[in-house]
Amino acid sequence: MGADGEAVRVRRAAPEDLPQVVGLVIEHAAYEQAAPPPADLAARLEALLFGTATPRLRCFVAVLPGEEIVGYASCAPEVSTWDGEEYLHLDCLFLRDGRRGLGAGRSLMDAVVGHARELGLRQVQWQTPAWNARAIRFYDRLGAPAREKRRFTLTVD
């Protein structure tokens, strides 16, 4: 529930939401101690989210009464060679600090799972930071920043 007792609402992002979504992406990168997003992120996201009749990338936003966007989830279909099928990759799920515990995270996940169903996909997969010493050594040798991940799979009924 929002500050005035109204439920958080989740919907697909619209072009006019881009400034707030970009702000959340910047907060998300800082939260994960990652490099800041590129300066032209708004233009890039506009092209990916709204540049075609059937964009591959989807973004859902969690909105409080008064249209304050407090979180987002972005996702796109991907293919697993090992499974020999497509799945929906949840690229980002982020809620603004101080706006957690309102049910927005669950609502965003429900929207992502619903999108997977719309696409006829049986799984949603995502990663979160984790430790993997061998991978870190490999990426360090390549000169890439090491951010180990754990992959999760959610079966979609």
Secondary structure layout plus pairing:
Blueprint lengths: L8 E4 L5 H14 L9 H10 L7 E7 L3 E13 L4 E11 L8 H16 L3 E7 L3 H10 L6 E7 L2
Parallel strand pairs: 4-5
Antiparallel strand pairs: 1-2, 2-3, 3-4, 5-6
Structure characteristics:
157 residues; alpha+beta; 6-stranded mixed sheet; 32% helix; globular
What does this structure look like?
The protein is of the alpha+beta class and 157 residues long. Helix content is 32%, strand content 31%. It is built from 4 helices and 6 strands. The chain has helices at residues 18-31, 41-50, 104-119, 133-142, and strands at residues 9-12, 58-64, 68-80, 85-95, 123-129, 149-155. A 6-stranded mixed β-sheet has the order 1-2-3-4-5-6, with helices on both faces. Mean pLDDT is 82; it is low at 131-147.
Give a concise summary.
Helices cover 32% and strands 31% of the residues. The chain contains 4 helices and 6 strands; from the N terminus they run βααβββαβαβ.
* Major beta sheet, strand line-up: 1-2-3-4-5-6
How far from one another are the termini?
27 Å
Shape descriptor reads: globular
For the CA atoms, what is the radius of gyration? Answer: 17 Å
List low-confidence stretches.
Answer: 131-147
- By DSSP (H or I, 4+ residues per run), the number of helices equals 4
Q: What about the largest sheet?
A: 6 strands, mixed
For this structure, the quaternary state is single chain
